[in-house]
Amino acid sequence: MRIALPKEVVTACHLLAEHHKQAFVVGGGIRDLILGSFPQDWDLATDARPQEVEEIFTRAGFKVIPTGIRFGTVTVFISGFPVEITTFRVESSYHDFRRPSKVYFVEGIEEDLARRDFTINALAYDPIRSVFCDPFDGRRDLLKGIIRAVGDPEERFSEDPLRMMRGVRLAAELGFHLEDRTKHGIVRNAELICRVSAERIRDELSRTLLALHFMKGLQLLTSTGLLFLIIPELREGWLFSQYHPSHQYPVLEHTLEAMRYTPSSLEVRLAVLLHDIAKPRCFSRGEDGRGHFYGHEKMGARMAEQILRRLRYNTQMIKRVSVLVREHMLDLKMGPAGMRRLIARVGRDLIEELLVVREADFLAHSRELVLRYLVDFEQFCEKLRKIIREENTFEMRDLAIDGTDVLAVLGCRPGPIVGRILKKLWNEVLDDPARNTREYLLPRIREIAEELGWKGDF
Ligand code: ATP
Ligand code: MG
């Protein structure tokens, strides 16, 4: 095992051993190494107290940052390579469900491992003596591909409910199976997830959505009830029949099916997850008995915005996802002017994502509909891409004139009329980009002003 460890990690262990301190590689590092993937970060556990760790590494000439000294963690940099070193510890009660209210340092690695979430994360390796410490059979579970809580699952999840999301996320990342008692521990404690901070939930949700086995993650989030607690609005679509021959699935089942066709992009996956969020609230039935969902894309965009804000996603993500939801009902019969307007509304840097969202949504319709419109859809995408490639007027600032020109032609002071005229001209240019010349636009200023009832006064 030592051979596979980065030499910086081994150096850190040696230095601690020279000072008669224990040093174990723990957590995700050792787990990922055994699985053959390269770990994201390296954690060591030691019986040295944080101040001692600081002293040992500073004296040896390494850079040290006391990252979480209150929780016993010091980060040392060996040739610029960060290694987190944490003193053996246990945690007291989790009052606010965020951080343990207090930590206690303990003497042995076994006690430290017992406070960890899953057996595959509660595994330690001492590279100096070449010994594993594996009191919960983490290696067996790693080999079998099982996520199992350390100790009593219910107790562990009620201590820190985020572990439920971590368990699902690990299953999705590693393609592992959630052991039955662990899964039922989640089912019975799912409601507690509401006490966890939105940021921590968001981070785990994002990682689950981007995981290699993300469909497994979604299936687990749904079957344990966690999904409906994180995004209660999704529950409205569960088993909600669409009464339409284009749909073979109810609303949420259609959404989950559409997720299967998404590429690994967080904004696309969030957009597809939320694209029909407002359908149940917009439902009506025509005289022929068919279901309709008029306006669900607009209401959906507003709901998506609220949901993502609640989960503390950043402004850019919220904006882009809600545009994707708002525009997901692409009309394949749209002509070139409609396409230019679409590009103007969406922005050219989001168009490819929109096509991908539409494609995923489309492929999750009835087989009959997919077969009927596949060619139309492909041709639509080609035409839209051609316009993007060959034209360059997609934002109002690409207009060949601006507000100063309007003021100069009309000889007036700035006022709302300027914006209204520019918008009209912009629409004319979207209908026919050849009009985007000063020769065409300048004379149109006065004509439009008069059409708008402008008489030279404000
Ligand atoms: P990754 O780094 O891929 O996210 P990880 O398992 O290393 O996975 P970290 O957040 O780096 O996750 O945590 C390091 C270790 O700390 C874990 O392997 C686990 O042993 C322990 N741990 C982390 N979070 C918790 C928690 N909420 N409850 C109990 N133990 C935890
Ligand atoms: Mg880690």
Rg to the nearest angstrom?
29 Å
% residues in beta strands: 5-15%
Helical/strand content category: alpha+beta
CATH class of the largest domain: Mainly Alpha
Mean pLDDT rating:
93
Whole-number count of domains: 4
Question: Could you characterize the architecture of this molecule?
Answer:
The protein has 458 residues and is α+β, with helices and mostly antiparallel strands. 51% of the residues lie in helices and 10% in strands. The chain has helices at residues 7-18, 28-35, 50-59, 109-114, 138-144, 153-159, 162-174, 180-189, 198-210, 214-224, 226-230, 251-259, 266-274, 296-310, 315-326, 336-346, 351-363, 367-390, 403-410, 416-431, 438-451; strands at 23-26, 43-46, 63-68, 73-78, 81-87, 89-91, 103-105, 124-126, 131-133, 146-147, 177-178, 284-285, 291-292. The strands form four sheets. Strands 3-4-5-2-1-8-9 form a seven-stranded mixed beta sheet. A two-stranded antiparallel sheet has the order 6-7. α20 crosses α21 (438-451). The site of adenosine-5'-triphosphate has 12 residues, from α7.
